[in-house]
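Page header: ASSEMBLY MODEL / two components / 227 residues total.
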Amino acid sequence: GAVVSQHPSRVICKSGTSVKIECRSLDFQATTMFWYRQFPKQSLMLMATSNEGSKATYEQGVEKDKFLINHASLTLSTLTVTSAHPEDSSFYICSARATGSGYGYTFGSGTRLTVV
Amino acid sequence: LAKTTQPISMDSYEGQEVNITCSHNNIATNDYITWYQQFPSQGPRFIIQGYKTKVTNEVASLFIPADRKSSTLSLPRVSLSDTAVYYCLVGDHSGNTPLVFGKGTRLSVIA
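Prediction written out in full:
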């Protein structure tokens, strides 16, 4: 089945630094990927849609200058949290769908970001 | 995008069948219904998808009435490892439009 690999699984960074999260489709090409954020005991909140070769589309309330998304190839999308602050601490998850897949959308295993 | 409504939580004993119903009154003609399972600190995992009537796979069944305004996920003989949050999502699932998650149902399986 379609596999999405997300890295790192956990990261701790100091306030004010930047963190990059990678999302790779391992056995399929993904022209579109999606980034979500999930706070404890809450549901997944869509942050942005990542499009290969073009600018990402951000949801209302998500700062595009703070959450930089790059989708430079058909198998890789990255999310960079710039100048991270403690309130950015969350669980970040990416997703994509393989064309013709009977398994719906595939999600990465998530990245737990802790900003100290 | 069609909005979904599910119970916030459910409890069940091991070995019982669990049925989780989801309402989606404004489902569109080309929308599919998909259920995902999420364990703590993991990404959601696909369980089952359907358009109408009944779908069954190795882990669950999905019942969809003729009007498609609701659906029921059925988990046979649950075990402790089925404790998770279950999300019902409705959409065209084309791969170009994102999935929008509701609050989900937190299932707790008790020994």
